[in-house]
Design goal:
Layout lengths: L2 H7 L1 H20 L4 H24 L8 E2 L4 E2 L2 H19 L1 H7 L6 H18 L3 H19 L6 H32 L4 H7 L6 H17 L9 H7 L2 H7 L2 H17 L4 H24 L4 H22 L2 H26 L18 H4 L1 H15 L6 H14 L3 H27 L12 H14 L7 H16 L3
Antiparallel strand pairs: 1-2
Length: 487
């Protein structure tokens, strides 16, 4: 094994590991008064890690040269695409946190350190080429996430969210581990390449059960139906900056990991798992759309919106083609921007005393009191609904196009029809903001960082975003090609 080559490929993980450990020592010595400085340094570490992985995506890195540690890790273009989204979302979650936590005097030095270690785990997840590497990365991310969900210790909802996430996450990890053991037992290897080769041919019943349990465990991480039950409660109960993080970076990591496992390790048995993915896609679209309709809390509504959007992305996975994988990545990039914008907008909903406002009814008449915020939120809602000419429409379009090209016309038609149903609750938010009698509750001033992020995401999802379609499509296509290249 070439150690220098392996250490070069994991440079981003090395930076995050060293930065996380160093900042943990700073937090121990300096206490919470250094929390802002630690947050700035954590963002700098994420930026450095992004610069280290970007060349792999731009150069289209793939093949044997991207493997490290005897094939357990793969630093290819696909992993680089996912990592750039993860690091960007994690950095945004750090930027928006201080203004929120300062209100409760709860901004602790451990917060940026936990985000860094979670990002480290997610980076390992998307680069995993072995079941052991997969599990290490997933658990490193999960252990950080459990603490983050319960980070606001003075809030009972946050403690409840952390407990629910921990219990259900442990159950999902057990299901995944059982599936991995079955897969190992019936293939004789934990390597993705070895599993792919062993499953090439007739599929045994034991191996099929292994595939089912592995996908079930991963379905929890992406909050796909029927493993979505934790999402609304955790999104509502966790502090809003943490919810912003959960809705973006871990979602990218879990979906990218699911793509690598399904299309790489189980790639020769697409017909065996396609039915599972189609069911999860359809169920997530329907449950996400119907579940959001009756919600009175904006964070719970966005949780169901997340479930709904995961269903649309899984349509691309069901295609099991490079075009489908590319469409998923395009949709994922647009979804991250929409989710960041949506939750930053929620963070800006404050009363005169700075208390957060989460009730949808309290947003009535927002267009008259905060016209800029109302416009940005309306754009985000219409984009999430896939209404042209906003950029969210393009994400749905490329996914449906990939499904049609893979002869999954019925699935695409159902998805298009369900988009119309799902548009109802997004339009309801816009109607409340623009046509209902103003309540005058949202009067608090917003932090400059929140305003800047909301402007950036709003511009990205606006019609101007279509200027990036070719560039984004080319990057996603390069990443998808790396995923389908067997060594």
């Amino acid at each position: 094994m070439d150690w220098s080559q392996s250490l070069r490929l994991i440079a981003a993980e090395e930076v995050l590991s060293v930065a996380g450990l160093a900042l943990l020592l700073v937090a121990a010595w300096s206490g919470d008064k250094a929390s802002r400085a630690i947050s700035v340094l954590a963002v700098a570490a994420l930026v450095a890690a992004a610069f280290l992985v970007a060349p792999a995506l731009c150069s289209g890195a793939m093949g044997a040269d991207t493997e490290a540690f005897l094939g357990q890790y793969r630093g290819d273009a696909f992993a680089a695409f996912a990592k750039l989204l993860i690091y960007g979302a994690a950095g945004a979650s750090l930027i928006v946190a201080p203004a929120f936590f300062d209100r409760y005097r709860a901004m602790r030095a451990e917060y940026p350190v936990l985000i860094l270690f979670a990002a480290l785990g997610m980076g390992i997840m998307v680069s995993a080429a072995d079941l052991i590497t997969l599990y290490i990365g997933l658990e490193l991310n999960s252990l950080s996430a459990y603490v983050l969900a319960a980070f606001l210790r003075t809030d009972n909802r946050s403690a409840e969210a952390g407990l629910k996430y921990f219990v259900l996450g442990a159950l999902a990890s057990g299901i995944l581990l059982f599936g991995m053991s079955l897969t190992y037992g019936f293939t004789g290897t934990t390597s993705f390449a070895g599993i792919r080769a062993a499953l090439d041919g007739e599929l045994s019943t034991g191996a099929l059960f292994g595939i089912v349990f592995v996908l079930a465990g991963l379905a929890f991480k992406i909050s796909a139906v029927p493993f979505h039950m934790w999402t609304p409660d955790v999104y509502e109960g966790a502090p809003t900056p943490v919810t912003t993080f959960f809705a973006t970076a871990p979602k990218v990591a879990a979906l990218a990991l699911t793509m690598r496992v399904a299309l790489d390790a189980f790639g020769t048995q697409a017909d065996a798992w396609r039915q599972i993915v189609i069911f999860a896609a359809l169920a997530s679209i329907v449950v996400g759309a119907l579940g959001a309709i009756g919600q009175a809390n904006i964070k719970r509504l966005l949780a169901y919106s997340s479930i709904n959007n995961v269903g649309f992305m899984l349509i691309g996975l069901a295609a099991a083609t490079p075009e489908g994988a590319s469409a998923m990545l395009v949709y994922l990039a647009i979804y991250v921007a929409m989710s960041l914008g949506g939750f930053v907008g929620v963070l800006m909903l404050k009363d005169a005393d700075g208390e957060p406002i989460e009730a949808i009814s309290d947003m009535a008449g927002l267009s008259s009191t905060r016209p800029g915020l109302a416009l940005a939120l309306a754009m985000i809602m219409f984009s999430l609904a896939g209404v042209p000419p906003l950029f969210g429409f393009w994400g749905k379009f490329v996914v449906f196009q990939a499904a049609v090209q893979a002869d999954l016309v019925a699935l695409a038609v159902f998805g298009i029809a369900a988009s119309v149903i799902g548009a109802f609750y997004y339009i309801k938010i816009v109607k409340i903001m623009y046509f209902d009698e103003p309540t005058g509750k949202v009067t608090g001033r917003s932090d400059w960082a929140h305003q800047a992020l909301l402007v950036i995401t709003s511009v990205f999802i606006s019609p101007l975003g279509y200027l990036l379609t070719k560039w984004l499509g080319d990057l996603a296509g390069t990443a998808a090609t790396a995923l389908f290249l067997t060594v």
